[in-house]
Amino acid sequence: MEERPFNDTSYEQFLKEKRVMGSKCKNCGALSLPPRPICISCFGKKMEWVEFKGTGSLAAFSSIVVAPPYMAKEGFNRNNPYLVGVVELEEGAKTVARITGFDAKKPELIKVGTPLKAEFLEKGEGPERRYLLAFKA
Ligand SMILES: [Zn+2]
């Protein structure tokens, strides 16, 4: 299986390859996305990589009107909010991610339970290039 360390760099490298990779605890089986070197459930340190299908459903969300600087750079602000949500993955784990495919200005129309699919975002140029996981309705 994959020998990459369980950290953000490996995670982002997988996203660049358009793979949703998390960690699975060899002791208790708990899944984590993004991957963690220590189990969030039993604090075990024996982890293995697991590939998620990238499908799930919306469990909770927020419409963000006050954007942090890196999001403001993308044009998000009070008049152009964006969504962040908790996604319940098909495999059972939960993750927090950008949510796309909805109108963030009309959060009242967004339904919890809506099926979502992984979307691979690429931001910035050159050495600033980042690979992010989002979920799209
Ligand atoms: Zn564990």
Overview of the structural elements:
This protein is mostly beta strands. 9% of the residues lie in helices and 40% in strands. It is built from two helices and eight strands. The chain has helices at residues 8-16, 69-72, and strands at residues 20-25, 31-32, 47-52, 55-64, 82-89, 94-100, 115-123, 130-136. Strands 4-5-6-8-7 form a five-stranded mixed beta barrel. β1 (20-25) and β2 (31-32) form a beta hairpin. The longest helix is centred in the N-terminal third of the chain and has 9 residues, at 8-16. The protein is globular and about 45 Å long. The model has no long low-confidence stretch (mean pLDDT 95). Zinc ion (ZN) is lined by residues 25, 27-28, 30, 39, 41-42, 44.
Structural class: mainly beta
- Helix share, percent: under 10%
Largest sheet: 5 strands, mixed, barrel
**Ligands bound to this protein structure:** zinc ion
Poorly predicted runs of 5 or more residues: none
Indicate the mean pLDDT.
Answer: 95
Separation, N- and C-terminal Cα atoms: 31 Å
Shape: globular
| Number of DSSP E strands | 8
Instruction: Tell me the series of helices and strands, N- to C-terminal.
Output: HEEEEHEEEE
Number of helices: 2
| DSSP strand content | 35-45%
Strands of the widest sheet, in order across it, are 4-5-6-8-7
